[in-house]
Write a structure and sequence with these properties.
Layout: H1 3-8, E1 14-17, H2 23-32, E2 39-43, H3 44-50, H4 53-60, E3 65-71, H5 75-87, E4 92-96, H6 101-110, E5 116-120, H7 128-133, H8 140-153, E6 158-160, H9 166-173, E7 178-181, H10 200-205, E8 210-213, H11 215-218, H12 223-234
Parallel strand pairs: 1-2, 1-8, 2-3, 3-4, 4-5, 5-6, 6-7, 7-8
Helix pairs in contact: 5-6
The structure holds cytidine-5'-monophosphate.
Length: about 240
């Protein structure tokens, strides 16, 4: 993963979530956002609708791709999934840390150096009650810290973390981990369903390496202007 690009250009820290229903919409947005942000994130909606070729198409437009598939399966299957994703040329890929140490190690073993694997802890849609439903009696906060520690021990160096977890994780792990943070809303933007959003500037100050931003850009009347405003705001 080319971390030096992150330090140099604020645009390189921004990941735009292509949460769109179809290939044509996604490619139109990628074309509209020029110069490009650091990466485009392709998640389940677009990947299932458009297939792996959407990754190639976004790359052909000169951009880097974060594939957000949140892998969670037996170690052998996850390892092969990582191989398939990296053969598409993606540069970031997510997996669920709740898959456990052996699964994480299989993913790490299958990942080439240029692929940053990102461990997902507890989704922000879950709370302490959700954990209890699945037999976890600890708090979300403690479980997040435990899962990141497990990921680091299994060889992971990248994590997805919400804005309110940033400082704790940065304090515990310093610069040995890279943190990607969703739940970002520029000053004055609609919160949508993000309950504890933070501004781009605040998230970077709290220790985020990359910001995932979707609707404030994809839903803006002028997505390019929205991206440029965010880039200006974080400088
Ligand atoms: O549109 P918005 O900026 O809320 O998009 C945020 C993106 O980050 C979406 O793709 C969403 O799935 C993802 N995400 C999130 N919260 C998490 C993990 C991922 O919003 N805890």
């Amino acid at each position: 993963m080319k971390t030096q690009a992150v330090a140099a250009d604020p645009r390189a820290k921004i990941i735009v979530a292509l949460d769109l229903p179809a290939r044509a919409d996604a490619l139109a947005l990628v074309r509209a956002l020029s110069p490009h942000p650091g990466l485009f994130k392709i998640g389940l909606q677009l990947f299932i609708a458009a297939g792996p070729d959407i990754v190639r198409a976004v790359r052909d437009l000169g951009s880097r791709v974060f594939l957000d598939l949140k892998l969670h399966d037996i170690p052998n299957t996850v390892g092969h999934g990582v191989e398939s994703a990296s053969s598409l040329g993606v540069e970031m890929l997510t997996l669920h840390l709740t898959g456990g140490r052996t699964m994480i190690e299989a993913a790490v073993a299958a990942a080439p150096a240029e692929l940053l694997l990102l461990g997902v802890t507890i989704l922000t849609s879950s709370d302490d009650d959700t954990l209890r439903e699945t037999g976890v009696t600890d708090t979300v906060e403690n479980q997040v810290a435990r899962l990141v520690k497990l990921g680091v021990a299994a060889g992971l160096r990248g994590f997805v973390a919400s804005p309110h977890e940033l400082q704790t994780l940065r304090r515990a792990h310093g610069s040995e981990i890279q943190i990607v943070t969703p739940g970002i809303r520029p000053v004055g933007a609609q919160p949508n369903d993000q309950r504890r959003a933070t501004t781009p500037k605040e998230a970077l100050a709290a220790g985020a390496d990359y910001l995932v931003i979707g609707r404030p850009i994809t839903g803006a009347p002028d997505p390019r202007a929205a991206l440029e405003q965010i880039v200006t705001d974080v400088v």
